[in-house]
Amino acid sequence: MMAKAPGRTRRKLFLGPQIRRRRRELGLTQAEMAAGLDLSPSYVNLLERNQRPVSAEVLVRLANTYDLDIADMASGEDNDLFSSLADAFADPIFQKAGVTREDAHELAAGNPVLAEAVAGLFRAWRQAQNELIDARVAGRLETVDPVEEARAFIQANRNYFPDLDAAGEAVADEIGHEGLSPFDALARRFNHRHGITVRVLPDDVMVGAYRRLNRHSGELLLSERLDLASRNFHLALQLCLIEMSATLDRAANDGRFSGDAGRRLARAALANYAAAATLMPYGRFHAAAKELRYDIEAIARRLGVSFEQTAHRLATLRRPGQEGVPFFFIRIDPAGNVSKRYSGDVFPFARYGGSCPIWNVHDAFRNPRRLLTQIIQLPEGSTYFSIARTVRAEAGGYAKQPAERVVALGCRIEDATDLIYADGIDLNAAEPTPIGITCRLCERPDCAARAHPPLRRRLVVDEYRRLSTPFSFEFN
Questions:
Q1: Considering the domain boundaries, does residue 224 fall inside one?
Q2: pTM tops 0.85, yes or no
Q3: SS3 label, residue 381
């Protein structure tokens, strides 16, 4: 038996990641690439998964058909995937486990899909670490977001606090018997019960403040830039902070907060809830909502409150036996920032980021003071009826910039028949507008309004094809 001539053993050439990357760059399917190379689609699939080595003949076909540089493709340690893995494995978190460059090479050659996943995870981890470092340097890092903690507390209680509703109704019943306007009745209660005089002062005297309580002089000062509904609300809010302090403490202390900031924000939200319960006592408000079929403007006129106050209050009707339509509520500014949000166990708002640009809450800014309705549908099929309108915080005078926002309420499509806004609309036949929660969580592939690719999909950059959508991403 003849012995083999001495010499180096040829290493088999696996180029799966490079072939797959080039195919994606060209916008080809595996079947299309197979046809161009005169190979079977299953064989191309095996090549891309590094389950078959690339023969010299196939290497030449790849070079001739798709203008590939054989030397670049054959240089195993120079490919991007190996470089990414080698970079990751050089990090101390991998060094502690004894991972080497050889391990990186074996992973890239033997299981490129897993290798890409590991490299991508490491890049995401490194980016997150850099962002945390930047935040620490800038002095703006908090381990827990107190705003989100407060929102989670309100959500956990379904935006319903019966003790505060009962306390607000009691105050409303007492001051309602005095036969005065809400402002005069509240001012009188401050004076008679607490020895505090209510005064409305020019904005320049208030130095930018809407409300200021001066215990020393016994005065509650309000800015004249506030409209009547806002003055009433600030009076009710300050009254609740004084008279319902123990009730507010008990309610806030029922929540779990990582620090004092979250608890204080939750307590402030509870005080606002109590003020609304005082100006819009539950029984009276619920009766008006039912009678007027949730006509927000009509309810607001009847109770002497604002559109936003009414809309917000409608999202709190959870009293057993006296429930209202389960609404979700959101308030946004022209930049898409969310300043108020409550899902009502109905709508899955994203914790961070804006809302879907196709939702007509954004159209409302182009139609000030006009109430817009829309039937919307999320990717999984949940369908809702929404109402949106602009609201404005009064600037107080000429040349002062008012704060304009949009307030939106929504409910499940099956509850929309209770709303006056759905009259004349065939809720079963109407075509819903497809929206997402937010761009980074929405995986609709055909949205021209998309601002970001979805987090859970791999972005595809194609230099040979431009689609109507801003981003292309993979689904398999």
A1: no
A2: no
A3: coil
